[in-house]
Amino acid sequence: MLLLLLLSMVVNAEIVSSKGKDFVIALMQQISSGSATLQISSDVTTTVTIEAPFIGYQRTLSIGPGLIETRMESTLRETSSKISFKGIRVKSEKPISIVVIDDTSPSVGAFLALPVESLSHEYMVVSHPGRKSELIVSPAADRTTVSISLRTTSNVTFNGLVYSSGEVIREVLDSFQTWQIQSDSDLTGTVIKSDGKVFASSGSQCAHIPEVAKDCDFIVEQLTPAISWQTDYIVPLARSCLNTVRIIARDDGANVKVTHAGRSWSTTLTAGGFDDRSFPHDPASDPVVIVQSSRPVMVTNIISSDPNAAPEVCGPAMTVIPAVTQFIDSYNFRIPSVRRSDLKLILPAAKMNGVLINGQPLHVMSSVHVFTGTFFDYYVIDAGTSGLGNDLNITHRENIDFGAVFYGMMGSDSFALPLGMSLDLTNANDVIRLVGGSSAANGRVEVYHHGNWGTVCDAAFDRKDAAVVCRLLGFYFGAADPVPSRYGPGKGMVMVDNLDCDGVEADLHLCRSGPWEQSTCPHSRDIGVNCSTDLRLVGTTDPREGRVEVFYNDEWGTVCDDYFDRREAEVVCRALGFGVTGYFYTGGGGAGRQWLDDLQCSGREADIGQCMSKNWGVTDCGHDEDIWLACYPQTKVRLAGGRSSAEGRLEVYAKSGWHSVCDHMFDVNDASVVCTMLGYSGMQTGSTAQISVYTHAQFGQGQGQVAIDELNCTGHEADIADCPSRPWLVTSCSHLHDVGVGCASSIRMVNGTSTTNGRLEVYFRGQWGTVCDRNFGASDAQVVCNQLNFPYFSGYNSVKTGSYYGSGNRPVVIDNVGCNGDEIDIALCASNPWLSSTCSDNSIVGVDCGTSVRLVGGSSPTEGRVEVYYNGRWGTVCSDNFDQRDADVICDQLGYRFGTPRKVYVNGHYGQGSGPITVDELQCDSTESDIQFCVSDPWLSHDCTHAQDAGVDCGLRLRDTLASDSICTSSRWNIRLDMRLMERVFPHSNAGDIALGQTQHCSGQLQGHELVFTNGLSSCDTTVTTTPEFNVYTNQLQYLYHDPLHPSIIRNVNWTFTLNCEIFRNGSVNFGINPGNSNTGNSIDSTAHFTIVQTFYSGFVNQQFVNPLPDNPLQLAINSDAYVRLRSPDADGNTKMIVQSCLATPTNNKNDPRRLPLITDRCESDQSVQIVLSSSHDFGFKFHAFSFDQSNQGIFIHCEVKFCPVTSFTPECQQFCRH
């Protein structure tokens, strides 16, 4: 069935021309592989951009008034029947004209390009038999649906499928895509339709004209929109050529009259039908053919060699002929290199003498007067161009419109084209519309006639008249019911009454009626029409779901599932008033007639009667292929019986119940579609997360039917209903084969300080969201870090609460998450339902998956023994294969990027550790952001001893902050600290915390970036030692650690410099420093040579302290157990730590008179105290908590520690009680 032109668009006065600012061009295949030339002309200066993404081509040209040429790559020419990406886009700031010329012998052709504003939605193909008739289409915008209704005597193959005449091929194209169709026979009359503007051209790779001719040539022409066709044409014939005038009808009932040399021929054409008339041109005959039609037609002239003329004078060429109403007022053209050219001008007889070519009066080689006594009074002129050059600018003194057609003869290689034309897109004929209805398929009938809209009277109006109206609007089947008065009265004129159609007319004018524009019918009798197809969904109790049935010829019937997809579902659901795209499945079960097969909609139709299909009632389906539809956005699916909503038995909702899915052929592609539907990650989201498939009812057997068998998705579908399968609910599969699915989440960390930390975000239902910190713990962080493929989870301070990395201003996806720690995905952890959180923006969780590294035992934080926190303990790194690259990664990870060389120390240089040896055979390449990404043996697997503990100096130490000109004089210190370097060693250093003296704490003065101490040698706790040769003045420069809860209380000393000033009797001075150890914890005795760390716990299990407690002060419920641990992490193997005494006070002053001794002279002195651990470098005891007063403000623990050689066994160097 040939689908006629839709006449439902709104009419505006839209006269456009071949001049414009935006062009879409596609190059059709020809037998030559040569390139094409774009001939671009402009009347003013402008800038032109040419873009062809297929070859990465983009070029900007400047055109003055005149013409330029640019040659396109041959690779942009289409070479097969397929969809490619070879479109060309040309844009200009000012209007331009473009002629496309294939001038590569032996295959020559040309066509006039039309701008986008001159394109439309429907074209009719003109071609010719030869070596492949062909057409090519390219859209002006993305997602343009193009349908091609074939008219050919040969089959057409596309994408491996064979199509015959009358069948429709449909594709959706994006900008720059090109679609070429080829046939071994003539494609003339094939209809191209689209829902957006498209470029369309047609012709033949190499046409034989006449068909018995020996030679062939490429013929091509850009098609003009069918809506712009006209009725009156003057065809100038090419000299010494055989001219074949082809006339193609747009509508049925086109009465065509052809006149030449005083003779006339008449014929009546149907829509898509054509008539060829051949006319030889000789000097004695009339060089003009006149075509007149009662209905719009397109006229082309195909030239070829005249058997009675000289051989190879006119190779085959084809041109569209502009109608006499399509002329414009000026033309620009560059004549290619040709053997002979014919420039034909068509002018009103009264204006013949006003033509100028390049500003010179026209040289008339010959002319003929075309006069019919009614409409035509023109001269057709054979214009001479000799001596004018190749670039032609053709105008008229009075700026009138006239026609111009060019024939270029190159022997057997010729071309022809109009040099310009205008197009009337307001409609070449009367149009019709429906107004005031609930959709485009119903409303008051209005027709556009003689420039005005008017209504139709209901007098004698019946279903046959309604059928003509509906068909003109594109509703070819279904209902066509007259509806008097329902849609209200119209305005303007009642155009016609007593309409009396037979029901098959192609236009209301072909129906019998009263005189147009003379009706006396009032607007109260304005007729309306309902073109809607009656639809229903049956077979369930849900009005939105059921088997699709249509009412046609007074009988309900079903729809076959062939070609049925979401576009058809959208049209049906919208027509039923549900307004959403439905999901569909093959449910079968119908009876009686099956009305529709191969239904193909674009999705934009108002009714399925506008969609393409086989003729209604013609089908090769059985009722087992009846389509079912649910007008919900997507198939209802769920996962049941799993640990969370992200895993379980797959169930779908169909026919009012939940049903399982068979595991036959079910794979990860199918599961991916399911997970995407549920909002989790799948192939559509680009996720590489692990999706699991479980067969044989691992989550238990379902209770309903087995709905789907042999599901076969690609993984990229939006819904499992889009995937091939056996008909739904028709299967021999049992519940023993119920399939299960485990979905995966996509997670990321953002806004962190490195790639290993940040705010945790989860992708769900098409958007990224956050996770609430409520009950989020280390086991949850462990699942996250494992899911993100961090190889070693530290667990040390890994959870960051309180929107530590910002709130993100995103929806909270997960709340109250509770992982066990062994899950492979956070989606498998227990939680509240996703996207149901009431969590505030201040409670968003962050995660740190980085390794915790520290340097211990050095003189500053930037050097020391390397220790790594893993499995809840600090451990060391073995120095096997440890080198500069490993040191680089560690120092960078700690933030020590000083630009100075790093040093590596092996064999326990900074003392031996006491915990596990965590890492062995570390082999970094210096580019890693974290040592967990370096190659190594599995952590905690080693063959080392602590004597091989590795150490690192990150290149800038505490002593480097002391200025080189620091000295002392005979009366005072002159100590200078570079605070810029201090900030790098100790970030956030405060000059006010650095003091001279152990007890007086004298402050320095900040001078620029230097902190200067010029105190006298007799002040600030300076001590003096006298010898016969010199006096030695000694003091300490200290960085005081203030209690963070009580800033006025100094809890510790972060580091010390021991200063020595030797003043000799002869007046000379010797200045020296001795850096003390850097303390990494709360040191107890600032005079010790090793670091002492004091920590508190609430438990001691299996020789391990558990549940750390905050201190400064220590606040506990009265009589609860508290454990005090003292350890020396950087003491070497030659020393041992002895705890001499410990006491508790309500303040940080150990001399506070309110005190309670806990350990005295190495013995428990309180009845609640019990020593639980005692080793060379680790000591611990338990006591019952108490309060000094009723306010229970907390307590401070003060201990004195002594370090002894391991070989000393004096009483004070033994950790046991002597009482």
Structure write-up:
The chain has 1219 residues and is mainly β. Strands 7, 10, 11, 12, 15, 16, 17 and 18 form an 8-stranded antiparallel beta sheet that branches. The chain starts with 14 loop residues before the first strand and ends in a 14-residue tail after the last strand.
Give a count of the beta strands, DSSP E runs of length 2 or more: 84
Distance between the termini: 115 Å
Residue ranges: pLDDT <50 for 5 or more in a row? 1-13, 1077-1089
Helix content, binned percent: under 10%
Structural class: mainly beta
Largest sheet: 8 strands, antiparallel
- What would the average pLDDT be, to the nearest integer? 84
Summed up, the helix count is 6
Brief rundown of the structure:
With about 1200 residues, the protein is mostly beta strands. The protein contains six helices and 84 strands.
List the main descriptive attributes of the protein structure presented here.
1219 residues; Deleted in malignant brain tumors 1 protein; 84 strands; eight-stranded antiparallel β-sheet; mainly beta; repeat; SRCR-like_dom_sf; 5% helix; receptor
